[in-house]
Amino acid sequence: MLDHLLVSRGMLAFYKGSEVYNELLHDESVAYATETKFPESDHVPIVAEFELPDES
Fold this sequence. Notes:
Elements (H helix, E strand, L loop, with lengths): L8 H4 L2 E6 L25 E5 L6
């Protein structure tokens, strides 16, 4: 993994999970180096879910 997720101590209590969307990340082997269907970047989206308390 090249990408990371940083969470403060205060937010860690509300952390519910995360997903890494790496389906389109190409194989790093030379055989795939010329494939045009793969993205140019080695970075993928990471989505984190937090459940924050109500402020009422």
